[in-house]
């Protein structure tokens, strides 16, 4: 094959693959703008009314706020638990370090739907904890493995003798951590926050069973809405959410080279 | 390395305890439920589960779709990864970014697109009725094909990422050398590329397979109750019939499968270093 033929073949394969991966989003953006009362593609007439309607649906507003709150506070809580754990696993010679690592990473291996069901049945029902609190804890636990992994990998590049030097020069251990370690792993912590936020916000299976009257995460609410209504507003909302994720990831990539950490 | 073990444990234990209480304990109780089905410890829950034809069908379908999706992803993944590695550095980053981006987008949004494509008034049906191939729209949603397409779109990026990073490690001149020495492209693939990217293939394959196995949204939206998979069956069993024994059996199947896939991954990762 001559070079220009090969070039053409290369881009044909890539073009097909990328349109399979990305095409659906373009379709969804347009389908959300269709003037019909039902889903149609190609759109029949263009309108922004479905994009605007999304903001007026009461349950979407409530579930969006819940999902946001879960993603922000769940991820913060996971970092609060995960940063010290990652630090300890990297810097200390701990007995059973491998077991600790496995326990902290376990939530990734167990399918979310099972976790949600188990929490509902053996925590919410017997103890009477509210569903919201259970959701918060489930999302924290879900993000924890990512927090530990991303922070760990940014910590392995940091030489331990810098802290030792700080301690020798008169810092307390806590000061050595806040003044030497933390500034150096800041990028990793931020990357972990973003990854955790996106993971938690998009998470469905964990929250499937953990929903009660008026307590639903946004993806679950969309699933429920879809079952009764066929108008294009879910397409519009899906498109808006896709834009939101892209904006977050793009900003993160620009500001801190997000992909280095993930 | 610091020697103060107590200090280290104080830092690491909160995370471990949290994870134990919220994950290990409730999940283990759930798993034990199937063994306590008849009032005493037995395998009765499992026997009952597998003696129901529907459950067997769903179990086999989940396995089949998992394997099919992983296999197709591998074929497309090799072609795409090979092209990406051959790009110039600038367009390589851009194309790679476009492969990764969908992973950051809500699976609900990603799956919903297929309703637009395959639905009664979707593109495919509009084309079919428009061309006069059929008078009535075909039922494309709620079929195994729909679930297959949805899953493939969801997890293909994982395969491409794994294969690209494996191919980047193939020494530059190996493939031209094999060609110069007379190997056909087929021989190059099976004797050079495949052996050198085996690890990437296994990693990508496991990620795609476990992903497909444990996906909920795709079978729920595109398969509905016509094409149940293990996850949607579990949901139905709990919500419709309050059947926690079946739920526990399905949970065990899913955990055993994704756990063994993870063990495999770990072994490969350690064999390399």
TrEMBL record, chain B:
InterPro entries: MetI-like, MetI-like_sf
Cell location: Cell membrane
Domain of life: Bacteria
Residues spanning the membrane: 12-31, 65-89, 95-119, 140-164, 176-194, 201-224, 244-265
PROSITE patterns, alphabetized: ABC_TM1
Predominant cellular place of this UniProt entry's protein: membrane
Residue intervals of the ABC transmembrane type-1 domain: 59-265
Protein name, as recorded: ABC transporter permease
Entry's family note: Belongs to the binding-protein-dependent transport system permease family. CysTW subfamily.
Pfam families membership: BPD_transp_1
Keywords, alphabetical: Cell membrane, Membrane, Transmembrane, Transmembrane helix, Transport
Membrane topology, record value: Multi-pass membrane protein
């Amino acid at each position: 094959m001559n070079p220009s033929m090969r070039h053409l073949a290369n881009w044909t394969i890539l073009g097909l693959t990328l349109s399979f991966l990305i095409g659906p989003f373009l379709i969804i953006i347009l389908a959300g703008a269709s003037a019909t009362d039902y889903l149609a593609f190609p759109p029949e007439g263009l309108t922004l009314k479905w994009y605007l309607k999304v903001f007026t649906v009461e349950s979407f507003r409530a579930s969006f706020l819940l999902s946001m709150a879960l993603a922000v506070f769940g991820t913060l809580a996971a970092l609060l638990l995960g940063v010290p754990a990652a630090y300890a696993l990297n810097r200390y010679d701990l007995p059973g370090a491998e077991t600790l690592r496995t326990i902290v990473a376990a939530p990734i291996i167990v399918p979310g739907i099972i976790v949600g069901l188990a929490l509902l049945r053996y925590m919410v029902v017997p103890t009477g904890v509210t569903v919201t609190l259970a959701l918060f804890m489930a999302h924290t636990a879900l993000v924890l493995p990512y927090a530990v992994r991303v922070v760990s990998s940014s910590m392995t590049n940091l030489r331990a003798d810098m802290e030792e030097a700080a301690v020798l020069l008169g810092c307390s251990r806590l000061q050595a951590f806040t003044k030497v370690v933390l500034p150096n792993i800041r990028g990793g912590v931020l990357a972990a926050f973003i990854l955790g936020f996106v993971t938690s916000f998009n998470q469905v299976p964990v929250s499937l069973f953990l929903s009660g009257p008026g307590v639903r995460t946004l993806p679950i609410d969309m699933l429920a809405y879809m079952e009764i209504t066929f108008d294009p507003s879910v397409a519009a909302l899906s498109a808006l959410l896709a834009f939101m994720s892209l904006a977050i990831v793009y900003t993160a990539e620009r500001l801190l080279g997000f992909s280095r950490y993930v | 390395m610091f020697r103060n073990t107590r200090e280290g444990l104080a830092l690491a234990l909160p995370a471990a305890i949290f994870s134990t209480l919220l994950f290990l304990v409730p999940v283990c109780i759930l798993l034990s439920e199937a063994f306590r089905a008849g009032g005493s410890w037995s395998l009765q829950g499992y026997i009952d589960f597998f003696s129901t034809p529907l459950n067997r069908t769903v179990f086999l379908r989940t396995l089949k779709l998992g394997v099919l999706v992983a296999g197709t992803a591998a074929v497309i993944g090799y072609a795409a990864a090979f092209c990406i590695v051959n790009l110039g550095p600038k367009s390589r980053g851009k194309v790679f970014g476009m492969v990764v981006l969908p992973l950051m987008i809500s699976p609900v949004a990603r799956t919903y697109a297929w309703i637009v494509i395959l639905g009664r008034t979707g593109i495919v049906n509009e084309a079919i009725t428009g061309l006069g191939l059929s008078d009535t729209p075909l039922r494309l949603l709620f079929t195994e094909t729909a679930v297959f397409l949805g899953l493939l779109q969801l997890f293909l990026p994982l395969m491409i990422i794994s294969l690209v990073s494996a191919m980047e490690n193939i020494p530059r001149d190996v493939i031209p050398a094999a060609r110069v020495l007379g190997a056909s492209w087929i021989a190059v693939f099976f004797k050079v590329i495949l052996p050198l990217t085996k690890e990437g293939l296994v990693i990508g394959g496991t990620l795609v397979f476990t992903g497909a196995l444990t996906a909920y949204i795709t079978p729920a939206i595109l398969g509905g109750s016509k094409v149940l998979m293990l996850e949607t069956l579990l949901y139905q069993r709990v919500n419709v019939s309050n059947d926690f024994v079946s739920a526990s059996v399905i949970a065990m199947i899913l955990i055993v499968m994704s756990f063994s896939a993870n063990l495999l991954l770990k072994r490969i990762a350690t064999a390399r270093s």
